[in-house]
């Protein structure tokens, strides 16, 4: 039995010596002063990183929401005050009309001169706001820009505007009001020209 105990002690001592050698080898492989972090330390570091990322995400989300809200406010203000410049231009026209009505002793020539001045102010306001006049006399009829009230037999090319009853207006190529026109048609008994 003593031999068996001695053999077990020898095996245990050899294993202990092997474990010491293995731990010494591991210690020489890693840089001095550095030890493997524990699982709890790794978990805590990961949780801190997750909190940082969550905080950054919340801040980015809040900033995006603020930008969206500011953009909506800007759009609402732009729609609400889009005509501010044009309205400011029209105030001079209104002032001129009120001054003409307030004057008691006017002759027809002075009244006409005042109305012409007011019309020039209105035309200037339209030009500044890109409101264009559509006066299509002698032009080819365009259903997108003109509204035909009637057709009249006339010499010359058919489908041509021969009378403008009311001028049309456009704003940056968008039609505000089509021109009301009378359009020519070929006289009875004549063939329309070949196209």
Given as residue ranges, the uncertain stretches (5+ residues, pLDDT < 50) are 19-28
Estimated helix fraction: 55-70%
Element-by-element helix/strand order = HHHHEEEEEE
Number of alpha- plus pi-helical segments: 4
- Give the full name of the CATH homologous superfamily of the domain at 130-195: Head domain of nucleotide exchange factor GrpE
What is the end-to-end distance? 128 Å
Order of strands side by side in the largest beta sheet?
A: 1-4-5
Largest sheet: 3 strands, antiparallel
Indicate the CATH architecture of the domain at 130-195: Roll
State Rg. Answer: 46 Å
* CATH fold node name of the domain at 130-195: Nucleotide Exchange Factor Grpe, Chain A, domain 2
What is the averaged pLDDT score? Answer: 83
Kindly provide the name of the CATH class of the domain at 130-195. Answer: Mainly Beta
- What structural class do you assign from the helix and strand content? alpha+beta
Percent in strands = 15-25%
Number of strands: 6
Overall body shape? elongated
């Amino acid at each position: 039995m003593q031999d068996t105990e001695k053999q077990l002690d020898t095996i245990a001592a050899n294993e202990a010596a092997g474990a010491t050698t293995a731990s010494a080898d591991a210690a020489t492989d890693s840089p001095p002063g550095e030890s493997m972090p524990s699982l709890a330390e790794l978990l805590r570091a990961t949780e801190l990183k997750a909190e940082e990322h969550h905080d950054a995400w919340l801040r980015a989300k809040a900033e995006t929401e603020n930008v969206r809200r500011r953009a909506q406010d800007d759009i609402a203000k732009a729609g609400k005050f889009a005509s501010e410049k044009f309205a400011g231009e029209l105030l001079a026209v209104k002032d001129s009309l009120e001054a003409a009505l307030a004057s008691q002793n006017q002759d027809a020539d002075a009244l006409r001169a005042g109305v012409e001045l007011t019309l020039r102010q209105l035309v200037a306001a339209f030009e500044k706001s890109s409101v264009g006049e559509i006066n299509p006399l002698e032009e080819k009829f365009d259903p997108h820009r003109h509204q035909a009230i009637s057709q009249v037999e006339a010499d010359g090319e058919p489908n041509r505007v021969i009378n403008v009853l009311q001028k049309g207006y456009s704003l940056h190529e968008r039609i505000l009001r089509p021109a009301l026109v009378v359009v020519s048609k070929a006289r009875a008994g004549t063939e329309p020209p070949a196209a």
